[in-house]
Amino acid sequence: MERKAIVLEGGSLRCMFSAGAVDLMMEEGITFDGLFGVSAGALTGVNFVAGQIGRTARVNLDYVNDKRYLGFRNLLLHKSLFNFDFLFGEISDTLIPLDREAFINSPCRFTAVSTNCLTGEPVFSEKSECTDIYAAIRASASLPMMAPMVMVEGAPCLDGGVSLSIPYRRALEEGYDKIVVITTREHGYRKPPVSRPVARMYARVYRHYPALVRALLNTPRRYGAELDELDRLEAQGRLFVLRPPRPVTVSRAEKDVEKLRALYQEGLETCRESLSSLRAYLGS
Prior knowledge:
This protein has 12 helices and 8 strands. By secondary structure, it is of the alpha/beta class.
């Protein structure tokens, strides 16, 4: 039997594209043996592994304008732009419950990718091995300058995208035969270099974490190299890639619900249009 994995890029609220795509996969009964998620991709991946169609979209659409969930007020109260205490607490427990039992017991292996602030290297936290997978997910989505570090297995960690944006290489290394990758940027997108003022800010705020600063400054170059390799592997038929068909205008902290809903619909329709070729690639 061929082993299949799905890889989800981050991008904060740009994950609405990925949410639409994976919701259609769930509706169509498409499953995977492993999932690798970075930042918002890890948050989206939790709902996919738990089998909760529409939950990622509901959380973001219902609470994006709720000050308890997102806003600069949270930076003062919780030292985080996104209030993860609210997300993993009241939202996941009561308002839009996360099926934690289904998530943990799913046969699909789930790996959240964060960045070790001491080494600047990616940390791969697999749910069956990590002592606190929810802390690892939280770390994976904790944006530099916008969230505090989170301890993962004894190491301070931040957003996985700092060191590894699209972990398809990890899926290859673990021996998956078929790998589906969902990006949250259109084909050809490249990150601009880190500006000097931002570089100085990184150096000042993270002066005790020089490896993290180097990783932050290197992110645009490393991300470009990932995308170049992704193109090569896709052309060779080793990966199947779903990406937005046009430039994404949704920002990391987008407040426009209609723009978010449109991006979700775009993800759903992009996946629907690719469904036959996706099934052919997966052999199903």
